[in-house]
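WARN no homologs supplied; continuing
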Amino acid sequence: MESATSIESAKHVLLVFGIILAAGALSGLLAQKLKVPDVVVFLLTGICLGPQVLPMIDIRADSALNQLILIFGSSYILFDGGASLRFKVLKEVWITIVVIATVGVLIMTVITGIAAYYILGVPLIVAMLLGAAIASTDPATLVPIFKQVPIKDRVAQTVMSESAFNDAMGAIVTFAVLGIATGSGGFSLGKAMFDLVWESALGIIAGGVLGYCAAFVIAHEKYDFLVEYAPLVTLMAVIGAYLGADGLHASGFMSVFVFGMVIGNKDSFGFKMEHREQERLEEFVLTTAFIMRMFIFILLGAQVDFGLMNQYLAGGVAVVVIFMLIARPVTVFACAGPDRRAKWSMKELLFMCWTRETGVIPAALAGMLVGLKAPGSQMIASVTFIAILMTILIQATTTKWLAGKLGLLVEKKRQATP
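OK structure emitted
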């Protein structure tokens, strides 16, 4: 009997996967026709196919299957994004990346928290918890956008790197504020900074070491014995980088991002693949990343709880407007403006002010707060979904238009990923 139930459950999951693949393929085609980032159409498709509209996709947000898709999908998208970055460009902008991914998260938290305190009328500590939960940007959203919209290299790579590096800071701030809110511990600036440096350093080391080892076995002049299995190596290494860093209590997402950076810049370490093998690997990564973001955003859309959102709709929209139009610009000008090494132009700063989509990482943090029954967790989950919908539907769809107006679009060329 139990075996029959398992088979029926497996068939149901297989059916849902088939629906997601079919709907995703059509959505991707529609996105090309409309000339908008595909994550926007995936999100809307998920909303339409979810339990509250057409009950065709019903994978729960707290299920093991959903968490598996989110973790692996986000990790692979981050690997793809890291592989598209170039060390030469990052040398110019590393100061901005470090400051905006750390201090910037604190600024976003404080401004958003103050706005929520006055607009939603919640206790200040709960308002700050909301600010912390949505303060970090989302690599699963931003990386695909910049892979599809050809933006000036140093701007695109700065925003993508920020989104990869600030998830650790966002999580640290969120749980530090949670400790105060629940009375389980006071906030220690020294401990928070130590945790941040520890998580970041271990994540970078784990990703760097694994990236070098992977490059060695697929691109070394003499010892590239796994070159024919390079696509399989990327799958194994992405899983290994995430779980290895996580096991060390470091940032798994940072680890896979750095792993991608090493693979994408393997020429700098003296490794080079034959053109045919390189092209085969690029096609595999491109296709896999597309499938991963299809699953992530269709599922994210299907899990939007409109009943919960309606409870805080007006106030939530007002908070998110301040979040987008005040908190983000203040953060960008305060963190990137003073960077004399990068010498950011006003147009570049204005573009970065507009580009900070909210997505999978804030949604995961909000879900964890609900699971922990944190103070105000239902309100936080509601406003988080409002932020996800507003930033993806408004900011992501206007990214290319704004870049064109500011003169930041460049001629699109083939991505030299892994």
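The mean pLDDT is 86.
OK
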